[in-house]
Amino acid sequence: MKFRIRIDESLCIGAGRCVVQAPELFDQREEDGIVILLQETPDGALYDRAIRAAAQCPARVIEIESGDKPAG
């Protein structure tokens, strides 16, 4: 399965829940905790982890796209 992750850094509040859910996909900047996307188009095996990370984000800055339809 192919999917793409997009983030909006400008809205990130640095909660870090994405990093807890999927550390292979997300990290945080040292200076302010803002999300860093590590893989924009990861392996399909990480899809469920990406979806969980997006669902846990309190600021809703993570968008997961599967094919040409947004998935969450």
Fold and architecture overview:
The chain is of the alpha+beta class. The protein has a single domain (3-70), classed as Alpha-Beta Plaits (2-Layer Sandwich), CATH 3.30.70. The chain has helices at residues 17-21, 47-56, and strands at residues 3-7, 26-28, 35-37, 62-66, 69-70. The strands form 2 sheets. The protein has a 3-stranded antiparallel beta sheet, covered by helices on one side. A two-stranded antiparallel sheet has the order 2-3. A hairpin with a 2-residue loop joins strand 4 and strand 5. The longest helix has 10 residues, at 47-56.
Quickly list its features:
72 residues, alpha+beta, Alpha-Beta Plaits, two-stranded antiparallel ribbon, 2 helices, 21% helix
Topology record:
Elements: E1 3-7, H1 17-21, E2 26-28, E3 35-37, H2 47-56, E4 62-66, E5 69-70
Antiparallel strand pairs: 1-4, 2-3, 4-5
